[in-house]
Amino acid sequence: MVRLYSLSLLLTLSIPALAQQPDTLAPRRLGVTITLPDSLFASNSFLSGRLVCTGPGVPITQTVTYYFGPTFPLQEQLRQIAGVQATPYSGAPGAQVAVRIRGAASLSGNAQPLYVVDGIPVFQNTFGAPIRDNSMINFRPAEALEMDTNPLLSIPSEDIETVEVLKGAWETARYGAQGVNGVIRITTKRGRTGPLRVHYAGYGGVQKVRYRYNLLNAREYANLANEAALNAKFGAPYSPEQVATFGKGTDWQDELLRTATVQEHHLSLDGGSARTHYYAGTDYLNQKGTVLNSSLSRYAGRAAIQHQLGQHLKLQAAVGLSETRQRIPAVGAAANALAYIPTVPVRNPDGSYGSSRQYSLNPVQWAQESYTTPQHRRMLAQLGARYEFLPGLALDLRGNLERATLANTTYSPSFTSTAGGQSGDNTALYQQWVLNPALRYTGHFKEDRHVVEASAEAIYQKRRAETETRFYLPGQTQPDFFNISGSSYAANVAAYQLTTSYTLAGRYQVQGGLRRDASSTFTAKDRWQWLPSAQVTWHAGKEAFLQSSSHISQLDAWLGWGFTSDAGNIGRNFFQVPIPNGSNLSGRSNVFLREPTQQLDAGLTLGLLRSQLNLTLGAYTRRTGAAGHLIASSSLFNETSQILSSGLELSVEGIWSAGPLRGTTRLAAAVNRNQFTTDRPDWFYATDYQRTTHEQPLSTFYGLRYQGIDAQGAPKFQDTNGDATSNFLDAVALGSGLPRQLVSLGQHLAYRRVTLQAQLDGMFGYQVYNTALAALDVPEGYFNNGSGRLRNRWTPTNTNTDVPQATYTVQFPGVTTYILQSGNHVRLSSLTLAYNVWEKDSRNISVWIGGNNLFVLSNYRGFDPNVSSAGSDNQQAGIDASTYPTARTILLGLRATL
């Protein structure tokens, strides 16, 4: 558990001492550092959980807390932790979020961190979207390849007790062959001692697209089209009379985008005696999408009970159920609205949909008639028992069932006289059984001068998945044989682990671990891996020469080392490669990756002024081998291909007061560098826009450098090889889509009954390629509308510009710096103001108003600079396909405990 380094996240680090704890997201109570009483913000906090950062050997009572709220995806709130990047696939309701912890460490096409809920690895399966072909010809957004909602939708925020981010060498190595991308560990609520309490938390609000593209109106487009046609020696498509009557025409963004409502309601109860604790909660979420004909609804319920039976045996059980229903317009609907010609009306005078000479379907018809209706059901059920043989010696046994199903129907318009309608369906099932027995020992000797901890455990995961897809023309009742497909697989993962810890006099701590992991995905020769780890920690603040210091309240230093891999992430540890067929590519095949990874990290935690100022500084280096187990016809990797990654993380927390006003200010900052190396420097793997190649970062864009226009208004590109021409041979590295710097600033203020919470995030040092602007910024004036940038295009009377002249023949070869943009930005992710209306004992009522994604400071010209249209693929970060715009959200909420 990386607490420290990972901690960097909270800088508050007042982390003193003991056992490795992580950066955590925990519940409503507040007390975080030694100087802050639990009651300071608790009474009027509107939040449902907290992010807790603890460090090696820190007493459980000394934790640093960051609140997380229910109003936007949990992953995006993890940006408060140094070194965590959270990038949504798009702004669609329920969209997945790509989380990168300490940068990129894997070549996997779905390199998400490991999610662990109540101690069990879950959410490792991704349902694929129905696809008629397996070609590698064009870039497909992740939302066209995957059909999964964000899995954390299945666990309402109000049901979560804590969330921990594990990123250090020692912490992630404890998850072995599944820990290569870091670990997000979630603990759900299990009840507490006390009388029955009933809790309600709810909110309602509106969402509106935060930014819209600047596009040409109908008259401007008609002038561009005429100019392009004449420059290409064609006749003008629009007469002067038509141009004069066009005006603004159809604003397709206005027609497709709308203000949408969102609401969520959560009701729960908890309580218990000294021996029995219980918790039960139910949740309803409804969100109308900001894109026409899109929506999301979610129903969830969770129950948990734990009971102490006698002196030695504790039993517990929990079950969570959820159902998510979506309506999703075709992935290209929003991008189509940007490109569609504004001279075309939404509907013709006869009521039929208007269409252009280039495209038969206009954006409104596309959104209304081409869509899918996926329905996901998830169940997480767990039974656990703990038997204490002797004081300090106990046997833990946990069993878990995860079951997820998908039922989806696809609807398509008709391109014939037949009416459109249902055109396909697909069903899928994923099921995982997990068994985790563990023997744990903790011993204290000579008045706690010597503390020994040890454990031996085994983990067995048994998985099964099935899918079936059917395609047919609208109006058909059954598909033909060639349009039915299905697949299934079964796989197992096993791991055995020994861990030990020794602490001397509360000041010197040594920890070690050894795992042996196996995955049935690989052959017997490659199946098993040894994954060792170790960490040493010095709690210098407890030394006699510092205990009397009035300035230093804590000083800890640590050094960690550990191995992880990707072999156990079945369902995610794949790399897709093209299948050669002569001179063409006939499809895709999977390489299953092992990716052994070695990480070394070190850090320092410093508490000053009686823990009013707390600092954590961490550094790490990580080396990932890119060897894979090939399920294809030719070799791809060799053992010397590597991903090298290193970085620094800083967390700072200041606790202050001014009369009745009290506040906590936190800063988290991280710098990361990564590089791919291979002993075959001439080799590279190319996607549509990027390359993975020797001594370059992952997700490096390769293309031509734009050098403006010549005297005739034609585009010019740099001739890097000196052959007097500009073509693909002149392509050079143009920057990476992975950010180099991450910054987050959090502020919590409390004044009497009022609480203010804010989260400000920034990402810097990366590039974004916008596939929509790749067409909109080119003044060809035939197939697409144009961006506002084309108003400044070259003409004989406007030569002081870098925008080429309008013509059908203008060409931009692939990726160029004419389209590539900096993604640097600062975002006000959340701002919430809460007021405590009434409080008596443990009962209270509070109201709050807040907003998410309120503003973004950036020069980026797309919907949002923080988007990952390629999903969690580290080789295709920084691509924006404009599939769904992000929204600004304003909410009003109520919390009550009675």
Describe the structure.
It is found in: Cell outer membrane. It comes from Hymenobacter fodinae. Residues 74-183 form the TonB-dependent receptor plug domain. This protein has 898 residues and is mainly beta. The strands form seven sheets. The protein has a 23-stranded antiparallel β-sheet that branches. The protein has twelve helices and 44 strands. The model is unreliable at 1-64, 580-586 and 629-636 (pLDDT under 50). Helix 6 packs antiparallel against helix 7 (240-246) and helix 9 (333-339) runs antiparallel to helix 10 (363-369). It is globular. The protein starts with a helix and ends with a strand. A hairpin with a 3-residue loop joins strand 31 and strand 32. It has a single domain (3-212, 256-699, 737-777, 819-897), classed as Maltoporin, Chain A (Beta Barrel), CATH 2.40.170.20.
The end-to-end distance, rounded to whole angstroms, is: 36 Å
In total, how many domains does the architecture comprise? 1
Structural class: mainly beta
CATH superfamily: TonB-dependent receptor, beta-barrel domain
Signal peptide: 1-19
Main location: membrane
Membrane topology: Multi-pass membrane protein
Domain TonB-dependent receptor plug: 74-183
In short:
The protein is mainly beta and 898 residues long. The chain contains twelve helices and 44 strands. A hairpin with a 3-residue loop joins strand 11 and strand 12.
How does the SSE layout of this entry go?
Layout: H1 3-7, E1 23-27, H2 39-42, E2 49-53, E3 64-68, H3 74-77, E4 84-88, E5 97-101, E6 114-117, E7 120-122, H4 142-145, E8 160-166, H5 169-173, E9 183-188, E10 194-209, H6 218-231, H7 240-246, H8 252-256, E11 260-272, E12 276-288, E13 295-309, E14 313-329, H9 333-339, H10 363-369, E15 371-372, E16 375-390, E17 393-412, E18 421-445, E19 450-471, E20 484-504, E21 508-519, E22 528-538, H11 544-547, E23 552-564, E24 574-581, E25 584-593, E26 597-608, E27 613-625, E28 628-630, E29 642-658, E30 661-677, E31 684-686, E32 690-693, E33 700-703, E34 706-709, E35 715-717, E36 732-736, E37 741-751, E38 754-764, E39 767-770, H12 773-776, E40 821-822, E41 825-840, E42 843-857, E43 879-880, E44 887-897
Helix pairs in contact: 6-7, 9-10
